[in-house]
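anyone else get weird line breaks when pasting these?? whatever heres mine. first is seq + tokens for prot A
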Amino acid sequence: MVYLRGALLLIVSLCSYAAHTLKGTLEPFQYDFYVFSFDAPPTLALNSEFGDADLFVTQSTSNPSFNDFDLQSCKTGLDTIKIPDTFTSPVRVAVFASRAYMNTSYILQVSSDFSDEKRLDRDARSSGSWSWFEVLKLIFEIIFEILM
């Protein structure tokens, strides 16, 4: 994990039909930033457990925000974004906490296929079985790809 401007920047790589579940807690007006590398365009599902989190995606800027984004979902409750086939890997994602709540807790699920809920749940549970070496190797590959 790398900290960027006080916000969490997490780089995740997605293979076809992979699922990842990420959790976070934010104070009002704070962001968590993620970079997703993928083989097949993923679908993002953001569920606010408490408070109200909004979702912003970009492939054109370094950090998306509520003023600078390519795609957004700003609903109360479940926010979803299907990354279009025209987007190239990687994409950058921001989760933003609304000012209406003192704290916002969220779960961000990222999957290349939400049609099979059982596979989504199974993949999310097994995502923690990677070795540290595999995770570090993946992070360095993504950083190298971004820098080149």
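and prot B, same format (seq, then tokens)
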Amino acid sequence: ELQVSQQNLPSNPPTIGAKPKNKLEEVKENNLERAKELVKAAQEFLDKGKYAEAKTKAKEALWKRKTELGKNHPEIAQSLNILGESYREQAKYQKALKTHQKAYEMRKILFGEK
């Protein structure tokens, strides 16, 4: 008689009919999930007045998103806006303006001008 123990079963078995993920897809998914967490942390730091920490988190999220999503994507524009806010709050107005302009131009490309 065959006995199966819980420890030998996968923790999250694949869904029936689902295509198994390759390693690159898993890495991309993990990076994008981490980027979401970083954006959330950056926003929380902004809200608390911890602008240098917000900048660090926003830059890391931006790098991860650019790596995984390419040149133009709404999530990249979101990261740029948060980074721009961190610069503005630190009175780095030229950097803030440049960063917000990048986000604006990206949104224009993605969604058109209204």
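btw re prot B: Confidence is low (pLDDT under 50) at residues 1-8. The CA atoms of residues 14 and 20 lie 7 Å apart.
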